[in-house]
Amino acid sequence: MHDNIGRWYKSGKALLDEIAGSGPQGGEAYVWFMGQHGFVVSLGGLVFYIDVILNDIPDEAGKSLRVYPPPFAPGERQRVDYVLCTHNHLDHLNLDTLLPLAKANPQTRFVVPAPLEGLLCDAGVAKDRVLAARVGESMDLSADAGGPVSLVPVPAVHAKHVPENGEGERDENGDRDCLGFVLKGNGVSAYHSGDTWVAPPLLGALKALAPVDIAMLPINGTDWERTAANCIGNMNPLDAAKLAQAAPFDLVLPAHYDMIAHNSENPARFAEAMYTLNPGKRFHICAPGERFVYRKGN
């Protein structure tokens, strides 16, 4: 049983139909908040799911860790061209979402950090549907309308502590297993940070990609209780507001604060930090299932 079952602004067929509807025009992007750090982004004639989780997440006793249910089942027929997963945690990459989604939607392709390519292929996703993402290797993605879309992987640092060099974790091949993604198309760029601390290499990468119109940032932070429960932290509301101050963002969408029990944050703290540090910077706190229409310069 889930609490707050009415928390979705739009869900089910209504949400699926809205995502599948006509896409944004030039200089626009549509963004839907899907809970936790999940977003749907429509731009350049393509629809992207980023860290969208559509399955339940039970604890060891079988009780759901979700404080509200998924908006629809992962096996529904969906308009999704690419599913992007930033790293291998169950609230960002979950085979109980990806496998039914892949089966029901054969047109969909999957982008994951290079060390995780084998995870999806071994689980049954065809190799030609899985793209391995690496920092420094931009991907050109095809679109039926709206012109080309590029995807640029950027570093993320998702560890208990930021290393002295500010670098993220790497596998034996030197590839990072935690990434963020910058999408560029329709004259709009959108950055999903994945789970990360703020570190100089990340800020440098974002400045090199300027301008970045939309930034989707975690704000759940960390504390001793989460550390004791082996929950790796993220930037907190003040960190996110400071990154917004330093980075070339036009609009910030806070996330990772609402869906999983005992790992939440009050987004009003982010709003307060933004008003204090960045009174001229745009931000929006989304309701789950709400479509936010971004227009360049508006």
Give the key terms:
298 residues, alpha/beta, Metallo-beta-lactamase, Chain A, seven-stranded mixed β-sheet, 7 helices, 14 strands, disordered N terminus
Question: How would you portray this structure in words?
Answer:
The protein contains 7 helices and 14 strands. It has 298 residues and is an alpha/beta fold. The protein has one domain (12-281): Metallo-beta-lactamase, Chain A. The strands form 2 sheets. Strands 6-5-4-3-2-1-14 form a 7-stranded mixed sheet, with helices on one face. A 7-stranded mixed sheet has the order 7-8-9-10-11-12-13. Strand 5 (109-113), helix 3 and strand 6 (130-133) form a beta-alpha-beta unit. Helix 6 (237-246) runs parallel beside helix 7. The protein is globular.
Question: Can I get a quick summary?
Answer:
The chain is α/β, with parallel strands linked by helices. The protein has helices spanning 12-20, 95-104, 117-123, 200-208, 224-228, 237-246, 267-277; strands at 28-33, 39-43, 46-50, 82-84, 109-113, 130-133, 139-141, 149-155, 179-185, 188-192, 212-218, 249-255, 282-283, 291-295.
